[in-house]
Design brief:
Layout lengths: L14 H16 L8 H8 L14 H9 L14 H6 L1 H18 L9 E7 L11 E7 L1 H21 L2 H8 L7 H11 L2 E4 L2 E4 L1
Antiparallel strand pairs: 1-2, 3-4
Helix pairs in contact: 3-5, 3-6
Length: 205
């Protein structure tokens, strides 16, 4: 670990001082006060209707298998030391075990404590002094099984997110959706025809 400067600009003189400086920096950069109360958002939430196309039942085994297969190889493991390749090489028993855990999470509303932990590392941005903490980008390595659960949830709401995304964001996102796929065709149709969702039905604006 390279030594860096303290908040006052003086260099850290030891490994322990460097660790303390990183802790001080990340506590200030990553911890923010809670947002202010918004009556408008509360009203929107109270008046929101359930989307009939978005399933709300517990994840199925097929969803878990699909999420595992979509994991990219080479991802760094989180604190539990489980890489994606380990889940893929025994996808049958692994998906069954994770499915049991996911159903319990869905039923209780509580996720395993390990999923909340992460290994925080800093990557140099490529410019500025390497002795300044602000010139590094924090990366958190999270539990891969926890990411599988997140992928299951994301897959359920992805189309809804794409439809409600602002046009500026949408154009960029569309580039990463496989050309010719059913999802790409549906999204492109909705975008082209300027459609909106009303009571669960898509209509032209």
């Amino acid at each position: 670990m390279s030594f860096i400067n303290k908040a006052d600009g003086s260099p850290c003189a030891s490994f322990d001082e460097t660790l303390c400086r990183w802790r001080e920096h990340f506590e200030a950069a990553l911890n923010h006060p809670p947002g202010t109360q918004s009556d408008e958002l509360d009203t929107e939430a109270d008046n929101t209707t359930v989307d009939p196309d978005t399933p709300v039942d517990a994840p199925s085994l097929d969803e878990v298998v699909s999420a595992i297969r979509k994991l990219r190889n080479g991802l760094a493991a989180g604190p539990d030391g489980i890489p994606p390749e380990l889940l893929k090489c025994a996808i049958g028993p692994v998906s069954t075990a994770l499915h049991t855990i996911f159903k319990k999470v869905w039923r209780t509303g509580h996720i395993p404590a390990d999923w909340k932990d992460g290994i925080l590392t800093a990557l140099y941005k490529g410019k500025g002094s390497k002795t300044e903490c602000g010139n590094y980008r924090p990366i958190t390595l999270l539990s891969i099984p926890g990411k599988v659960f997140a992928h299951v949830l994301l897959a359920r709401i992805q189309l809804l997110l794409d439809i409600t995304r602002r046009p500026e964001q949408f154009s960029t996102q569309l580039k990463f959706i496989e050309k010719g796929s059913q999802m790409a065709k549906r999204i492109q149709y909705i975008k082209t025809n300027q459609m909106i969702k009303v009571n669960g039905i898509y209509k032209k604006k």
